[in-house]
Specification:
Helix content: 40-55%
CATH class: Alpha Beta
Number of strands: 5
Radius of gyration: 18 Å
Structural class: alpha/beta
Largest sheet: 5 strands, parallel
CATH architecture: 3-Layer(aba) Sandwich
Strand order of the largest sheet: 2-3-1-4-5
Order of helices and strands: EHEHHHHEEHHHEHH
């Protein structure tokens, strides 16, 4: 089983790329989805975060106020490091457990902070999704993020051009959807042909 990380910056189409590989026959995992399950009320990570940051990060209903926590983290590098020390090790352990349960096909894992937390050696290959900074900002604004917060988020992140140095493949996501899909298909063919692993769709095309 090959483990392939899909990384990149915010609003660069990582999830879209992940779903394309899933449609081609890959198993897929998302570190964001894993993190979300670890942040539910009453979990060990949730309790550690409350202890570290206080009741200000909890909503009236008792859930984690993720937007409040994100604002705190993106606005304060020290707070961001404290947050990462709690969340990232737990996410890595949970991902490892899920990877061990995956089928013996290439597994693509969306890991936004792959390079920042030095997880690239945990994977057999790295795919970087890269858009333009202007498109990232536009997508953030379309999601309802304020211009000020969009600037904070983009400034807080490692530029994607730095991540491409670690990439086995770079998918340019500012191009058309058809072009992005073509890039994903080329990567999938390379992986499946080199390992003689073919999905049922490839063996029996409709």
């Amino acid at each position: 089983m090959q483990r392939i990380a899909v990384t990149g910056g915010v609003a660069e189409g990582k999830t879209t790329v992940l779903r394309m590989f899933e449609a081609l026959g890959a198993s897929v995992l998302s570190s964001d989805a894993v993190a979300a399950s670890l942040l539910l009320p009453g979990t060990e990570v949730w309790e550690q975060l409350v202890k570290e940051f206080g009741q200000a990060i909890i909503t009236a209903e008792g859930a984690l106020a993720r937007e409040r926590l994100a604002t705190l983290a993106f606005g304060d590098p020290t707070a961001r490091r404290r947050l990462n020390r709690i969340v990232h090790p737990a996410v890595v352990r949970a991902l490892q457990a899920q990877l061990n349960a995956c089928a013996p096909t290439p597994v693509f894992v969306e890991v936004p902070l792959l390079i920042e937390v030095a997880l690239q050696d945990f994977f057999d290959a790295v795919v970087v999704a890269q858009a333009t900074p202007a498109l990232q900002r536009r997508r953030l604004l379309e999601r309802g993020v304020s211009p000020q917060q969009a600037r904070q988020i983009l400034c807080a992140q490692l530029p994607t051009r730095c991540k491409t140095a670690f990439a086995d493949w770079v998918i340019r996501t500012h191009r058309s959807l058809e072009q992005v899909e073509a890039q994903a298909r080329r990567i999938w063919r390379t992986l499946t042909q080199s390992n003689q692993v073919y999905s049922e769709t490839q063996r029996n095309p409709i």
